[in-house]
């Protein structure tokens, strides 16, 4: 998806050219590889509050609390990152427990026969 030049702003006429220039300068300074992981991009040019917001949302979710994210596109990015972290962690736990159970099942079968 081509998202080049799509920049949000809270002012009527946001300084888009300045924002583009700053992001390009930050990405160049970060020396990221081609198609870097989202966490690397967030670390290089993201808002420092975004990882904090991700942690707050995940902690609130774990505690069963409802969360209202306000902030437009920034919080949408946070929500997307939370979703991917949740999916990744869920898949990781599934595979760990699946293979651990598989190993236990076959190890008992071979040890006691």
List the helices and strands and how they pair.
Elements: H1 16-30, H2 38-45, H3 49-62, H4 73-111
Helix pairs in contact: 3-4
Walk me through this protein's architecture.
- With 113 residues, this protein is mainly α.
- The chain has helices at residues 16-30, 38-45, 49-62, 73-111.
- Helix 3 (49-62) packs across helix 4.
- It starts with 15 loop residues before the first helix and ends with a helix.
- The mean pLDDT is 78.
Tally of extended strands?
0
Q: Tell me the strand percentage band.
A: under 5%
Provide the structure class. Answer: mainly alpha
Shape: elongated
Query: Residue share in helices?
Result: 55-70%
Low-confidence stretches: none
Enumerate how many helices there are, as a single number.
Answer: 4
Distance between the termini: 57 Å
The radius of gyration computed from the alpha-carbon positions, rounded to a whole number of angstroms, is: 21 Å
* Major sheet characteristics: none
Question: Average pLDDT across residues?
Answer: 78
Q: Spell the H/E element sequence.
A: HHHH
